[in-house]
Amino acid sequence: MMKKEYLKQKIKHLNLEEVPSIGKLVEAMAYTSFQSRNLAYCYQVFKNMLMDSDRPTIFLGLAGAMVPGGMRKIIRDMIAYKMVDVLVSTGANLYHDFCEAVGVPHYLGTEHVNDLELRDLHIDRVYDTFLDEDELMKVDALIYKITEQFEPKIYSTREYLYKLGSCLNDENSILYSASKFGVPVFCPALNDSSIGLALSKYYMDKKNSNEPKLIIDPIRDLFELTQIKMKSKKTGVIFIGGGVPKNYVQQLSVNLEVLGIPHEGHHYAIQITTDDPKWGGLSGCTFKEAKSWGKFTKSAYNSVVYVDATIGLPLIVGAILQNCGNELNQRSRLKFIWMEDELIKIEQVYS
Question: Which residue numbers are catalytic?
Fold first, then answer.
């Protein structure tokens, strides 16, 4: 390339006197540098995902302590405002959402504290957030009690979490809103959470009494989620952090290949992470690397921003809400028609 081709676009210094909203601020960041520009690129990829006339199915992979970190309402709004169609989450985020829905809050705390004293006081700490352990034990007992009311059969986490969310009555709840709007919620490591701990006691008690029990089948989960990918014309992914939710969503194309079903990788992807690629960890795995596995199409439109998700997520989602409100209102919602573990079809509905 010639010198003039490298030097054709100038940096535009942020003028906060001309950015009256989150939406305008994030758009202006596209002409800055470093993670500010990357955040603007993630916003643009997300916007293109939402505006694609082929109506991609959008998967949200949710890791990290996002609910204890105050991001619960934002995740709920992404569901309610049709920004995401499928949620794949860690069990902890769903458990903490359930806690809030039944009146057990999170408290402002500090990392500069005597943790042994907290232990004596039955206070649990998530970095600078506190929780009342005595109240959490009551939540575990409630999950146990609710689960006892469900038919004792084999469930996927999608089915189980739908029923659990249907028992709540909190418009700000992730689980409640997902059940209300028909957004499937999958939790590939449900056992790695306090929901799983409550279910382990349920399992033990039913086993000791020789009663029939509810069983959650993780392979059925993968089978169901893979069908969503298979029956979608296009797909996009949003990863908050990484871990199991990220890999679970990324591996769908690989699973279709294993099943001998023609497929394409995901078409859009954004990730908010603080993990560095060079350590070889999954949360830092780049989309470029994922293309070697066929997890994304060769021309997939993608961007990553390396920033704390409690900073990056409100800015990106806030910009979408402020700049794309009319488009979101006109956007269809996906309706998933299931017969047991078989996805019959995906319909677009307008409301």
Answer: 295
